Amino acid sequence: MNKNQTCEMKMVFVLAMILVLIVLSVELFVFHNTFSGVIGFLPMLFGVLVISMVLFTAIVHVFTSMVSSNVYAEKQQYDAIMSAASFGVCVISKEGSIVSVNSRIIEILGEKKAASIVGKDVMKLFDLEKVGFMNLFHRSLEGQSFWISEHSFFTSNKKRLIFKIHGLPLRKMKNSAVDRVILVIEDITERKEVQERYQMIARNVSDVIWTLDLELNYTYISPSVFKQRGFTPEEILKGKLVDSMDENSFNITRKAFQEEMVLEKKGKRDLDHVVTLDLNMKKKDGSFLPVEIKTSFIRNEDGIPVGILGITRDISERIKNEEELKIREVKYRTLFESAANAIYIVKLDGKSGEFKFVDVNHKGLEIFGCKNESEFLGKNFFDISAEIQEDGRTAKEIFKENVEKVLGGEPLSLEWLNRRVDGSEFFTEINMNFVEIGGEKFVQVLARDITSQKEAVKALKDLETMYNQVSENAELWLWEVDPEGLYMYSGIVSEKILGYKVREIVGKKYFYDFFHPDDRDQLKRDAFLAFKSKEPIKNFLNRNVDRDGNEVWLLTSAVPNLDKDGNLIGYRGIDVNNTEVHRAQEALIKSEENYRAVFDSANDAFFIHDISDGKVLDVNQKMLEMYGFSSKDEVVGAYVGRISSGRKPYDDDGAKEKVLKAAVEGPQVFEWECKKVNGEIFWAEVSLKKVNLGGEVRVLAMVRDISGTKKNVDRIHELDQLKSRFISSFSHVARKPLNEIKWGINTLLAGDFGEKDEKESQFLQKILGDEETVEQMLLNVNLALEIEKGTVVYERVQGSLVSVVTQVVEYVKSDCKLRGNTLNLNVPADEMLPNIEMDVEKMKMVLLALISNSNMYSKNAEIVVSVFQKDENIEVRVIDNGIGIPELEQKHVFEIFFRGSNVLLEYGETAGLGLYLAKNIIEAHGGKIGFTSKEGEGSSFWVSLPISQNEE
After folding, report:
1. Confidence at residue 732, expressed as pLDDT on a 0 to 100 scale
2. Which residues contact 489 (CB under 8 A, 6 or more apart)?
3. Given a cut of 70, is residue 467 above it in pLDDT?
4. Strand pairing of 551-562 and 568-577?
């Protein structure tokens, strides 16, 4: 019964007593004046008794109603909380069997009702033996709560689940023994899987993603802009859009924006509309880079534009390839057939007035779903076009208008809605050029399937969709298999590469099912040898067969997926379609003429090596450009060591070994450290293959510059992983359960479910403190994200580091005392240390992280904090004799999310952000941070900060 109900009871009782007194007074007065003696007193006594019984009955009824109402209300609130909770709740008996569960547990385990779960052994159901659950469970029966920060297991249908578990003791009455244990289970499977898969995507993104406000000012740009144009994101954000391109490109951009805004004002909005422009963007060296940008509006919940989202792609290579198509017929045909984009030739039929196909390459047949040329050649252009195009005009109207321009000598580029043989529609970007062959006029059309790009822009609001689209644009097939090779995840690019939809692969196909029958046994053995060694798989070239029986060559890279005990639970990797490269290499050995055509026009650097000593016999133009040579004479006859870094194994001996290996063992793919004429070092991917040229056995080397990718991929990965993991996962997933927990605890502390004694209040306050710790963790995550973006603002002032250290020490003394630790502070007593320039609040975060770590990982120990001057720096040392850090893990201490293996189980509540933030803050102040540690004996962390130069 709460306070309000108690007050109501008291008021009813007082009113009843007043009414009894009033009735008694009236009775006395009436009977005293009318009767006398015993005869007059009896009626009066009878009336008082009757009224008293009536009032007593009313009081009992009111009391009973209040108690029943209170019990019913509390039951309803409990049931509501249990059913609405986003986390699973499971009640366990003292014997370890499940007594009851909420609906979330049923949903997580894929069951239909609680009856199929209740009564089962919790250890077996959740595979808890490997995390030492029985010890934790017995501790809970003794009145202690416990945490399991991360636990993964496979359900009966081989579905992998990952949980966070919090165990709480449950008593029937206040001071009784623990009767049952409550497990609060949070399913973090989706968060972990999205994070891991997105990690693979980020390694291959090279396009620049950016946003503008409606004033055409940059609000965000991805770090890949440095690779593309030489500017850092900070340099771009300080400038304006007009500074990033030439005058003509800016005018085109502004005009397109104004036209889109006019359509918006007229109500002719298309929420999925994407604008594609070809522009010239300014590079840091003063030159201009031709790019393709795709933009669409960022809209609010009402569909109103609030900004602009864009993707910039370097098209310099594409432009160069298009120009090379005009070279002599042999080279044109070689490139025509091996091109990655569709190419077809259209001729105006003078008799019928129709536009008919007279030629098409293999890629053109593929994207339109044709099995051979007879299904394509001779058809009208409009047979493969959607009748109504994206802008509402007919295909005939648009094509005739543009063909006339092209025939007049004006190259043209536009987006086109096509129709495949099976009737499905898709978008291409087509580039039309006028060509004259044998005195006749034709239109050459270069078509690139851009359906995936359009879908990617539309789907950027959804993280899962975004990374699928990025992988599709890059033609990367992401996958994950279990230890037996069964696919547990597949990216949507599988359909593009092999013709199989995701639902046809996951849980149904093994990776070796796609290997070519002639290679399957050997490749399967090689793959499982790698599985057994738990080693990464890198650039593994393998021949596969798609749904239609066509050969598909894949280049596979993968890493092992291990549990916390080091057991293999599968592999996660990427397949790149290497078919076109393989076909180009095969074509090179067919004839000298074909070899020379492809060799001279290729976009990758090519070498021909003598098989005996590795000497360079021939190179193509791309090689001269890549290494900075002016003519072939400077290279031919030289050894590879001249154009290698010279650092072992990247020297002559290493090169000869690779060439010989390609000649004896077969094709080799590897990375090589190269050197340009000017001494600049860069990384390249090298593919070696034995070929027969002019009757001589040689080794052909294809070299691709990957230095930009190696420099930027980790940076892009970390930024996108942080954005995905914390902005999406923490902000979206964690907020709701945190708010529910906070609301529930505050409700209990307010006494809405009855008064709490001191121990209960202290316990609830402890939980509330933990919730606030999680909220602080979210703030730390935001700071980490700002650090990665380079947007952290430091408010530096002159101040005393001794003063800051003293404040932090006083703040954490009580926490140290609770753990039985002694915290001592040593500062110079006879002199004042010089001031330093610092952001006081962020410096407090650093010191709090160091001292709190020593306190957390020590018990009944001494922690010593010292401040002193060393040369031109002020140093702070924090020394403890706690559990220490394993030697093999010490190199990772300052990495984000690092936590030592010796603390994972017992100290599951930390996120591994403190030391990462500390290192970045100290280095931003021009200082250094380091440590020494020995497992089982303790650690000593130190911070060194420069004394302000204006100090006397």
Report:
1. 47
2. 193, 197, 478, 479, 480, 506
3. no
4. antiparallel
What contacts 506, CB < 8 A, 6 or more positions away?
487, 488, 489, 490
CB half-sphere exposure, 108, CA atoms < 13 A? 28
- Distance CA(579)–CA(129), nearest Å, equals 47
202-237 burial: b if 16+ Cβ within 10 Å, else e = bbbbbbbbbbbeeeeebeebbbbbbbbbebebeebb
How do beta strands 836-838 and 797-799 pair?
antiparallel
Kindly state the tokens that stand for 303: 């569909």
Token code pair at residue 901: 């293996």
Closest by CA to 691, choosing from 701, 683, 702, 700, is: 700
Q: Which two tokens stand for residue 927?
A: 């200082």
Residue whose C-alpha is closest to residue 150's, from 909, 779, 915: 909
Structure tokens at 133: 């659950």
Residues near 638 by Cβ (< 8 Å), separated by ≥ 6? 615, 616
Tell me the CA end-to-end span of the chain in Å, nearest whole number: 70
Residues, the chain: 952
Amino acid letter at 870?
K
Q: CB under 8 Å to 838, separation ≥6 — which residues?
A: 796, 797, 799, 801, 804, 925, 945
Rounded-to-integer distance, Cα 915 and Cα 917, Å? 5
Let me know: does 543 contact 551? Beta carbons within 8 Å.
Answer: yes
CA distance linking residue 3 with residue 919, whole number of Å: 53
Residue 450: count of CB within 10 angstroms of its CB:
21
Cα 477 from Cα 467, distance rounded (Å): 11
Q: Which two tokens stand for residue 367?
A: 């994207």
CA atoms within 13 A of residue 146's CA, in its CB half-sphere: 20
SS3 state of residue 635: coil
Name the E strands within 482-566: 487-490, 537-545, 551-562
What is residue 924's three-state secondary structure? helix
Choose among 827, 824, 826: nearest CA to 862: 824
Token look-up 């306070």 returns 3
Q: Are 554 and 582 in contact (CB under 8 A)?
A: no
**What are the contacts of 631-635 at 24+ separation with CB within 8 A?**
634/677
Tell me the average pLDDT across 359-364.
86
Beta bridge mates, 381? none
Residues 136-159 as b or e (16 or more Cβ within 10 Å = b): bbeebeeeebbbbbbbbbeeeeee
- Residue 180's DSSP bridge partners are 93, 170
One DSSP character per residue, 122-168 reads HHHHTT-GGGTHHHHHHHHHTT--EEEEEEEEE-TTS-EEEEEEEEE
409-453 tens-digit pLDDT: 788 888 888 888 888 888 888 888 887 776 777 888 888 888 777
Cα 402 from Cα 408, distance rounded (Å):
10
- Smallest CA-to-CA distance from 485 within 576, 579, 573 is with 573
H helices within 550-611, ranges in order? 579-588, 592-601
How far apart are the C-alpha atoms of 789 and 773, rounded to whole Å? 24
* CA 715/CA 708 separation, integer angstroms: 11
Going by C-alpha positions, the residue among 632, 610, 629 that lies closest to residue 619 is 632
Longest CA span, the chain = 148
Q: Exposed (0-12), middle (13-18) or buried (19+): which is 485, by Cβ within 10 Å?
A: middle
Question: Which two structure tokens, joined as six digits, stand for 351?
Answer: 């008799």
For 814, the token pair is 């009580």
- In what helix (H) or strand (E) does residue 14 lie, and over which residues does it extend? helix 3-34
Q: Is the pLDDT of residue 371 over 80?
A: yes
Strands 476-481 and 487-490: antiparallel
Tokens of 270: 């298309």
Q: What is the pLDDT of residues 75-90, one digit of tens each?
A: 555 555 566 566 888 8
Q: Which two tokens stand for residue 15?
A: 């009113």
Look at 254 and 781; give whichever has higher pLDDT: 254
The structure tokens listed for 181 are: 């244990």
